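Many groups now describe folds with learned vocabularies. In that spirit, our science desk offers one protein's residues alongside their backbone shape tokens.
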Amino acid sequence: MSFHKEEKFDPEVTSALSGHVREILRLLGEDPEREGLLRTPERVAKSLQFLTKGYGENGRQMILDATFDEKYQQMVIVKDIELYSMCEHHMLPFIGKCHIAYIPNGKITGLSKIARVVETYARRLQVQERLTVQIRDCIQEALHPLGVAVVIEANHTCMQVRGVEKSNAITTTSAFSGVFLSSSRTRNEFLQLLR
């Protein structure tokens, strides 16, 4: 049995967003008072707050709260981190996986914090390119490792359900710092380990 904690949403924000969603429904030709839509504005308002909760989170602080001294200087990889974000151009989801590596320089962080950094920046209106760089920069600035590598592979529903309607297109982005940028051998080792 899985347990999900109840999300806390600002009632004023929920109420304001609900009003706007109600008006959107009306402008689309729907009847917001129809039985099936009565609670839709509130549901959408809460959903939007959840999907953008990263604005209220600080990824760098998450890492700093779980940083430990360690002499280990080999690659640390956390791969296949599920990623759910929303395209800022159409406010439609993009879904994929994030792969991260860093080489410590005297400091490491709890592995779950790496996944939380991804979640923090993904839960904002985004473009995949910026998201990739924000994750890299957050880890680089918090831990000052010898290098950070980030690769994101994602399907964008704005390309699948509208516009060009290409359901199999996958977008891959990468961002590197330190030894991952200066050493093709280190970068290639990381990319090889992703396969």
